[in-house]
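Input record (Table S2, row 489):
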Amino acid sequence: MSENNLAIVILAAGQGTRMRSRTPKVLHEIGGRSLLAHVVVNAEKLAAEHVEVVVRHERDRIVAHLADLFPSVTVVDQDEIPGTGRAVEVAVDALPAGFDGDVLVLSGDVPLLEADTMRELVEAHRATHAAATLLTAILDDPTGYGRVIRDVDGSVSRIVEQKDASPEEAAVTETNAGVYVFSAAALRRTLPSIGTDNAQNEKYLTSVIGMLREANERISAEVAGDPRVTFGVNDRAQLSDVARILNARIVRRWQRDGVTIMDPATTWIDDEVSLAQDVTILPNTYLLGATSIAEGATIGPDTTLVDCEVGEDAVVKRTDATLAVIGDRATVGPWSYLRPGATLAEDGKIGTFVEIKNSQIGAGSKVPHLSYVGDTTIGTGVNLGAGAITANYDDITKHRTVIGDEVHTGSHNVFVAPVTIGAGAKTGAGAVIRKDVPAGALALSVAPQRNVEGWVEKNRQGTRAAAAAEDARNAQKAADGRQGQEEDR
Ligand code: UD1
Ligand code: CA
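Output record (uridine-diphosphate-N-acetylglucosamine complex):
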């Protein structure tokens, strides 16, 4: 729709009192995006000539959010006169005076509506030459929504807000979605004169419908095929309802694209995540932000990935990772913690109770057990022994550890950075590596073991340890005696 004579007005000026939040309602998130961003993303698909967002409550936060994500939308400030009618009035005033097309009005708190439905509403409006076309829904529980009141002939006559409705009107189950197309001319004719004589003392946009009807102008209505796309968010309960509906939609989309998702109820996938064919997602898994998973990888159970990249056929189990890159065929977990800048190359392994931060681990290298690796570069074919710790922080600054190709380290090593281990080197168990190790060297830092015989029985007399030691020595003596007799025979 280019040269389409269409303006889109998105309402986002309300306070959202029922959320009881210091965050403005339209900035609450579902599927990794604000409610408002969902609306703008879909609105932008219509390529309208003008896209305006009306703001007032917490306007600076909302304007900053829009500038960040949608620099091309126009911000319009609502004044102190409250109500959806006033919001649209200031938006229409901000359009070029000569604009004589149609105005699609969207609510910043109705996030599930997709671009196709918006487009169909505009098309229906134009096909019927209406002054106004509204989207409605038949809801089992219409509580909170404006009700659509129709004449005996079925044509829409007006909308009544729940707070202003008589019991008969409140019993109507057809609701106003808060999504409409108007001809700009019809809005200019009616908006200035709508009053505030209602339960909320606001200028209701919904009053326009009744006024147009009284002026004998044509009102069209489209009933949403799936009423859930019209769900609005006014409180936290509705926020979780729409989040679950959005998630179910995302899960279905990936299943159709060839992803196995074992338990949709406990799998949460943000809108911007991308998954390849034959990815398998096990229960209790959260794929968030801009995470992407390549073909054949298996993620979960119990895994959270935020802005991560996972390679083909990788396996990531019971892991928490943010801004990490996991290579093809690599394995991670169970119980691994990958912090920003953790990079594991192909065929690598990060194992149980291992934390990695800002470190590159080369192809085929393994950090299998109980380790902390921070600010480290690890070459290829490396094996870090159990309990490897990089001491990267000297209380003032962070330093790097560099470990060359094919290095194998003993268990329970501490690498006191800055330090470099040359290619092919080895280290002994328990070593504290404070100095660089040349390529191919064996580094030992632990003093030879010295046994002080009989120390416990002498210094810990009467303890259970002393008794056990005595028993063991007696048993050993007896065994030695028997062996002596046998040898004598
Ligand atoms: C509104 C409709 C109701 C409809 C419902 C659908 C009116 C009077 N009522 O009710 O018929 O069923 O949406 O979800 O329109 N806003 C402004 N400026 C304001 C007030 C609100 O921009 O002065 C914005 C809000 O930020 C919000 C949207 O308009 O994005 C709707 O406002 P809200 O107060 O949530 O209206 P509802 O009571 O839900
Ligand atoms: Ca609402």
